[in-house]
Amino acid sequence: MASLEDRITALEDKDEIRELTALYCHAVAAGDGPAISALFGDNASFKMGDRLVEGRAALDKFYGTLAENPPIPFIQNHVLDEYSSDQAQGRCSVEIRMVNKGESVTAAGWYNDKYIKINGQWKFAARDFKTFHMVPLSKGWA
Fold it and tell me: What pTM did the predictor assign?
């Protein structure tokens, strides 16, 4: 059995990882591209469908476009599937509300995440967004 100190450190790490996903949501909703990018490691990636954004410069450019019309994500059901003192892997569900061409859009899906601890701080190493649906609110998902 791990020592009490190791167990407390693991709990603190897991809480920081879950908070990382919450900070991501708040930064996205605020349209704060630099704050979003800062949550990723320098060699990290974000994938959404066929689009893959890799590395610091590409992440800065990708998230820099959100300020005009940011989506509003709501993260829930966060699970860590793997954990070590400097790496982890998990998933969390997300509901997203946004406006596209003047129309309300609803989306739901999940993130498959890889996390890495860099200089004592947890960051995203990779984020892969999968959707259940992304449709105009007027049409619904049924």
Answer: 0.93
